[in-house]
Amino acid sequence: MPRRRLTPVGDARHDVSLLDDTIVHLFNEGTLDHAHRVFGARPHLVDGVEGTYFAVWAPNALSVSVVGDFNAWHRTRHPMKRHGGAGIWEAFIPGVHHGDTYKYHVAGRTRGYRVDKADPYGVWSEVAPKTASIVWDLAYEWNDAGWMAARKTQRVLERPMSTYEVHLGSWMRVPEEKGRMMTYREIAPRLADYVEKMGFTHVELMPVMEHPFYGSWGYQVTGYFAATSRYGTPQDLMFLVDTLHQRGIGVIFDWVPSHFPTDAHGLSYFDGTHLYEHEDPRKGYHPDWGSNVFNYGRYEVQNFLRSNAQFWLETYHADGLRVDAVASMLHLDFSRKEGEWIPNKYGGNENLDAVDFLRRLNEGVYRDHPDAVTVAEDSTAWPLVSRPVYLGGLGFGMKWDMGWMHDTLAYFKLDGIHRRYHHQKVTFRMMYAFSENYVLAISHDEVVHLKSSLLHKMAGDPWQQRANLRLLLGWMYGQPGKKLLFMGCEFGQRAEWNHDVSLDWHLLQFAEHAGLQRWVIALNTLYRDEPAMHERDTQSDGFAWVDCSDAEQSVVSFLRYGVDRDRPVLAVYNFTPVPRRNYRIGVPASESWEEVLNSDAPEYGGSGWNANGTVATVREERHGHPCSISLTVPPLGMLFLRPTAPRHDAPTMESALDATPPETAR
């Protein structure tokens, strides 16, 4: 039943405008990075009368009017007026207020085209399957001033960044209520508590922009400026971000500027023409996803997308954006056969308009939000993705290392006896590891579509699978680069991810799954607290191989360095189920090295086969280092060690053996 109106709705007024010549000029030339401040539905006060100002871009429409519950969806009751020759339609409607539903009724110039469109700049909408936009005041009293102030003083590349990727609809549900999804406000304290306990520094939310098809996970967006109403109001989402910030946890929003669905109420064929997308399907239609591709060569479309990025950073205090499917944007022949794509003006497959858009996007973001970060999901070898535009790059802050993910998962599927023949899969990365600012990501894409859960990708019997998973996670955290882990992987979810149900939290009652969870807590703690593990993540002087050539035993070792090079961390990995006793490793001079983490420890679900404790160094050169230590490297296990106080008079091998009681000699 429609809500009772407190004030009558007046006729549309066309003498009210938030546009001026400068705004219109910037919009048409593609430099209006804050178009969201004037477009859409904005509650407004004119001559003491409250109402809403509407503005929409539809240059090829014959007419546009505002329809909604307030006028019984009458198509001619509240017409809009074209603003000059810019293709913008506007109107002020007295009496339309916060909470009113509306759409734009667009009449095209050909074939009697008429359609009701949701507002491209609308900030909230009805719960699907309904599709109307809702006039909404975004006022919110934030309580994260401390977080936002601290963010301005930090250099993100030198800080720890371990991200927990979350799909809000399936992270945790309410089993007592038939497994219903939680609201933003219900999730907020639970997610904050859990992420704080786990030690992750950031949460990455899979797309929370409005999407009609829940099964798209948010990647088929119709409401780019609208927080999806499935989980509550815009203020409820702000509360979630605010809660996380107050607990010292950053928030990254997954963002999809690469394509949009063909739903009739959305951006597709908006004004009776291919306005936001290319007209030619060889450039404007994505064959894999059945969706439209943005026309980045149209300045007004660039304004829309760049303003959208600014909107989430500005209005929702997002700490960064993960940009989805960048590879599909950069390549005209992405997922297309010969003859199904149009070369650029130089005959190549590079999408020059998309390159221009991405560079402008990143320049604008870092100009206005220098303490935020943009992260590219790019699976190709496009150069300089995370390098500044002025150096010829695309300007992203970071880039996912998809090659590392594919090589690593392929390696861990192999039985230990065969890994010696594929040693390059774990060593090759260092040939390119510092060419970009990389994020090592194990994301949702790896645990769906019959790919199996991360745990069940691992080789071996159940014990070996868990050991391999601990080893893989230790490998990820030891490597240079920021980290991202999809929800459920931290405790060994057995089933593939299913967006229709909650994670299997009941598994934590079993010791082996609780042990995996404790292992991730330990890794996050070490990564966050030990400068050598994160300070030089993107610099080659932060990493040094000790030994990468022992393919026969499938053992590798390396050192991680921070700014203080006297406090490195030594990482040693055994990729086979055979324990390596008396395994000698070259190390920088130090009195001794203490074992900080051992993936085979019983508290993590390991066998506790042999803990090294504190290991004395001896003055025997090995692997280019003046000293060495002898370790027991557990089966399918790894070690992190760090030095005690530096010492340059370490004993010789002979004197060390003489001083060791026979029963403990290694």
Explained architecture:
The chain has three domains: 21-134, Immunoglobulin-like, CATH 2.60.40.10; 162-533, Glycosidases (TIM Barrel); 541-664, Sandwich (Immunoglobulin-like). α6 runs parallel beside α8 (352-368). The strands form eight sheets. The protein has an eight-stranded parallel beta barrel with strand order 9-12-15-19-20-21-22-23, surrounded by five helices. It is elongated. The protein has 14 helices and 31 strands.
List the topology elements.
Layout: H1 21-29, E1 40-46, E2 49-57, E3 63-68, E4 81-83, E5 88-94, E6 101-107, E7 114-117, E8 133-134, H2 145-151, E9 162-166, E10 173-174, E11 180-181, H3 184-198, E12 202-205, E13 209-210, E14 223-227, H4 234-246, E15 250-255, E16 259-260, H5 281-284, E17 285-286, E18 291-293, H6 299-315, E19 320-323, H7 326-330, H8 352-368, E20 373-376, E21 398-400, H9 402-412, H10 424-427, E22 438-442, H11 454-457, H12 462-478, E23 482-486, H13 511-529, E24 543-550, E25 555-560, E26 569-574, E27 580-587, E28 592-598, E29 614-616, E30 627-633, E31 637-643, H14 653-658
Parallel strand pairs: 9-12, 9-23, 12-15, 15-19, 19-20, 20-21, 21-22, 22-23
Antiparallel strand pairs: 1-2, 2-5, 3-6, 4-5, 6-7, 6-8, 10-11, 13-14, 16-18, 17-18, 24-25, 25-26, 26-31, 27-30, 28-29, 28-31
Helix pairs in contact: 3-4, 6-8, 12-13
